[in-house]
Amino acid sequence: MNNEEYKQKLTPTQYEVTRNKATEPPFTGEYLQNKENGTYICVCCATPLFSSETKYDSGSGWPSFWEAIDSTQITEETDESYGMVRVEITCSKCDAHLGHLFPDGPAPTGLRYCINSVSLDFKNTTG
Prior knowledge:
The structure is a single chain. This protein is an alpha+beta fold. It has a single domain (about 5-125), classed as Beta Complex (Metal Binding Protein, Guanine Nucleotide Exchange Factor, Chain A), CATH 2.170.150. The protein contains 2 helices and 9 strands. A hairpin with a 6-residue loop joins strand 5 (about 75-80) and strand 6 (about 85-90). The N and C termini lie far apart (about 35 Å). About 30% of the residues are buried.
């Protein structure tokens, strides 16, 4: 899919976050307080990324997960923007910006995948 196709498919905010590496404001995301069982998928290409089973409340203001469904579906890159060194994570299939990865999560992995809600879609498996 090219940028024009993404502009047609996504909302302006989804486009800015996933294609231009913007960040949604903390504590505003649709999935921050979501407690339903299901799978979080890439809003751009529908690749399964995270399970509700690994979601937790990190207090950061963004949905957080301690593990990805399949680590090969996520690409990690050093991000030195804003005077910080962080690990940016993107969807391996479509290169959508998802958020950042931090080494301050809970057991068993010690990881915190800090994700923008607008980069995700949710498929409920309850019922």
